[in-house]
Amino acid sequence: MSEHFDQLLRHSPLGILCDLDGTLVPFAPTPEEAVPDEAVKSLVKRASALRNVTFVIVSGRTRDFLEQHFQGTYLIAEHGAFRRGDGAWEPLRDEPVELANLAVRLDELLLRYPKASVERKSAGLVLHYRRLSRGDREAFVVEATALLDKIPLLKPNPSTLAIDVRPAYLQKSTAVPWVREHCGNGARLLAIGDDLTDEHMFGALEVGDDAIVVRHGETRRTKARWEFQETGQVMAFLEELVALREGLRTTVTALPKAVELRPRGRAAAQSLLVVSNRLPSMRSAKDGRPESVGGLVSALGPALQKRGGLWLGWNGKTIDDDEEPVPALEGDFSPGLLGLDLKERWYRDYYNGFCNKVLWPLFHIFPSRVRFAHSGWLAYEEVHRVFADAAVNAVAPDGTVWAHDYHLLLLARDLRARGHTGPIGHFLHIPFPPPDLFEMLPWHREILDAMLSFDLLGFHTPGFMRNFLATVGSLHPARVSDEGIEYQDRRTRTGVFPIGILPGDYKNAEAPEFAEEIEGLLRILGPAKLVLGVDRLDYTKGIPERLLAFGSLLERYPEFRTKVSLLQISVPSRADVTDYAEQRSQVEEIVGRINGQYGEAHWVPVRYFYRAYEQAQLAHLYRAASVGYVTPLRDGMNLVAKEYVAAQSEDDPGVLLLSRFAGAAVELREALLTNPYDIDGMADDLRRALTMPLEERRDRHAKLLARVYGSTAATWGEAFLGALAACR
Ligand code: GDG
């Protein structure tokens, strides 16, 4: 028996949630004909008598039906509307469900489709259309769902050739906490079912639990990690499981197979899965070929294609809190993009909450901007479970998983709990803070524990890696040595992998269709030298400081007035987080003040744009700028700095003025380094950049360019994946 099932099936307490129709009992043309036979009844009876096992039938059937066939068994009827443990039936909610309005219209529908039938229940009804001809089925579903959509409260749930109609809150997911409570502390649950109503049950499971779907030859997406094809296999499995727990067997051999993701026309389970909070944006180019937007996908695309991999992440859409996200392929791109919706609540508490109001400011050393909320931490854990469920379905159990960034620090823990055995790596795109800051996180121990489930943790700079090792050394019992970090029976390695760009994209960028707008912009700027800032509008990027230093230059060195203009492009980002909205007002206020104070009829000192440009337009602007003004207060790497270097002409290159607190400053040592906290000092550095002799500019640029070409996005991806493979 596999190690995974050996542990699960012997675990105490164990809860088993088992659907009936299509799972234990084969389908029949009508519900009346589908009844449990003696073999099912006797197996359920034995399962119900096991010690330290809570066996529960979780069905859409009525109380009467279940009671008639199963005595002495825990039962959940009508998708959770009623449950019965050792005592009497209890309703999930007390209010009755109003179905009267529906009756007349349903009767009319059934007159037109006499082979369809309705099964009435106290908390809903089921429309069965299995007996309709194939041609009639589709028309019936369209008419029935149109009719039901008009009924408030009731929500149609199309399942296997039957439509369940019941209040939206009645879902089998409600069975999961009830069973867990009955099992007692430390329980693990196993859920088995075949249709979409069972997916709700699977979706409510937690780390350590497991689910088996019964396929009946279908290949729809599922939250289950394991699969059987038909009810006979479920029976054989449960027979052996019961015998194992009764002490009559030592092993279970009738085990389910791992579910493989079968996206349209694609190979089965993948050998490499990249997981990031957000999917990269892709679009179809004019010639129909998919084209990536953004460096990360260019960096990882070739590695994914070579290994037949997939990319999993949030698709940018949100859904209502009572809906369950189902992973789906986005478009027809290569590499394949597997998208997940986020519930509204997760967007608020996980993404904007824990990620962007806790981890982002804390890791960038802005503790005063951190806003802790326990709901945020709970959502962070919950979203990890959702990502882990989707991930284990999308990658072979021994495949490689590469997780990205602070949104997914717990992923390896949750993948291991789901039986993933392959290598799992993580790359942090932002800084890692020193121990005393990390300790501010009320959940610092849990996060470190989870991070130590990765095989490899990658950082941009040796400094960030040192911070991580020092944090483990001071806050965690793990042993840190040259061989890596050892904790319990695991070893985690760390490494420095400075991310790069694809320099060719900036060096030779030619896109005539986008050039006109930029040339117009440059004409307006006139003969003044151009100082260029490009960033997401984020308080870590030091935009107010950069503007103030530019003001200080104009104030203290009046000879630069009318001779130089600052163009600041700020790409809208996280605008629904208060700190970002405030940053925007602050930036606009400083721009207004400088322009009011120094502007002249023919010269505007600062041009400020709150929008995004095409990559080719950025390359054009980079090339036109005499100074690349990159001044973050703290930054993981900062790709703009590298892009600026790549875009310069070698004959007459501009100067990169770079904050010493950007990760890029470690590599780009020939840039003019500056301290953005010292406004007048930065103004002096800007002056030096604007007056640097050609020879010095060429000399610095040649060295910088060699570095940008020496370590690119592609070499970064391969280096990380190579190191991850070497961990095993
Ligand atoms: C995180 C870390 C780390 C900007 N404006 C436009 C545009 N951009 C592109 C730039 C660059 C990218 O966005 C920004 O990358 P950065 O590295 O500067 O910053 P973050 O977004 O904060 O990224 C950072 C990075 O992850 C990678 O590990 O370097 O430290 O914070 O590529 O060109 N792109 C387009 N239009 C714009 O207007 N198309």
Q: Would you give an account of this structure?
A:
- This protein folds into 4 domains: 179 residues, Rossmann fold (3-Layer(aba) Sandwich), CATH 3.40.50.1000; 68 residues, Alpha-Beta Plaits, CATH 3.30.70; 224 residues, Glycogen Phosphorylase B (Rossmann fold, 3-Layer(aba) Sandwich); 207 residues, Glycogen Phosphorylase B (Rossmann fold, 3-Layer(aba) Sandwich).
- The protein is 40% helix and 22% strand.
- It is built from 25 helices and 31 strands.
- The strands form 5 sheets. The protein has a 10-stranded mixed β-sheet, with helices on both faces.
- About 2% of the residues have low confidence.
- Bound molecules: GDP-alpha-D-glucose.
- The site of GDP-alpha-D-glucose has 20 residues, from strand 26, strand 27, helix 20 and helix 21.
Q: Which class best fits the helix and strand makeup?
A: alpha/beta
Enumerate how many helices there are, as a single number.
25
Judging by the overall fold, what is the CATH architecture of the largest domain? 3-Layer(aba) Sandwich
Low-confidence stretches: 262-268, 284-293
